[in-house]
Amino acid sequence: MSKKHTYKSAGVDVDAGNRFVKSIGKLVSRTHRPEVVTSIGGFGGLFQPDFSCLKQPVLVSSVDGVGTKLIIAFKTGVYDTVGQCLVNHCVNDIAVCGAEPLFFLDYFSTGKLEQDVAYDVLKGFTIACEENGCALIGGETAEMPDIYAEGEFDLAGTVVGVVDRDDILDGSGIRNGDVILGVTGNGLHTNGYSLARKVLLSKYSVDFHVSELGMTIGEALLQIHPSYLQIIRKLKKMEGIRGFAHITGGGIMGNTERIMPKEKAVEERDSEEKSGGEKILQKKNRDEKSAGNKAPGGLVPIIDWKSWEWPAIFKLIRKEGNVPVEDMRQAFNLGIGLTVVVSPERADSVLKAEIQAGFRILPIGEVKTSR
Predict the structure, then answer these.
(1) Residue-averaged pLDDT of the chain
(2) In sequence order, what DSSP letters do the residues of 174-225 get, joined into one string?
(3) Domain spanning 14-167, CATH class
(4) Total-model pTM
(5) Of 21, 27, 30, 233, whose CB is crowded by the most CB atoms within 10 A?
């Protein structure tokens, strides 16, 4: 008689998944806003927004993961921080566009569902969703045996927010001579971990305490990617703000360049401004960008790399790995998690603004024409 096979013996425990969904109900409900229509467990998360206060509401979305930072979680057994990193990363990506977060959905996949691990990850999602005023309205927990090694999992998440069309921040107003300010960070955030792990974990264990860090390697690498939502909310109301860039993969230069107007857009904008048509031009620039109309040249960020001191974790990576400076600049944020482009006349007032405790605003560069 042939051996009897079941879904559970093949590595997928449906009952365990159902128990997990039931166990997280109270955590998830804490994130819910009045607009949430359903509880978790359905085929889709329902959200009924009230956009009556907006003239032209535009939905803004972002999807991301936390990359190989997860390997540090596996090695340390600390799982409640990576969920916070994921939510905050996604929220930052839409906040720099001027959007307010509405809701978040997660994807958690693993070889074998460990209830305690999954619960800690989910707890991290809910902590960050509460802090950002963002409802966790759904997600997917998948058991996929043979895809992941024992004790491993992967995470992804999607955030959806909204902004009034006239309030979209796309960098279209950036001009030659504008000032670039940097808002400090607290570590690697969610980028550069492949290089950091290659360097540090080849020499140290995650439990090794480094005096210049004031903590262990694992603790330093698991610092929570901060949310810049509150800071952006405050600064975007100030006069002279031209744009924000979230510093992720590609470093300070790569991400700040993403909001620089192209040459054609700059020339047309300057011409339109002379005739008082700036609003019309901004809409035209957005439409051209969405259609893939990219002109060569334009404006570029010029960063003064000596204007701030690298946090200790980056100095350690550079020293222990003999990493070229250009690689450091491309892989890491180097202590600047958000850049702010502001008109030169208003830069001082922004620098003096009181922002969230634990963060500072520093002048780190300027905008110049590329020719």
Answers:
(1) 90
(2) --TT-EEEEEE-SS-TTS-HHHHHHHHTTT--TT-EETTTTEEHHHHHTPPP
(3) alpha beta
(4) 0.90
(5) 27
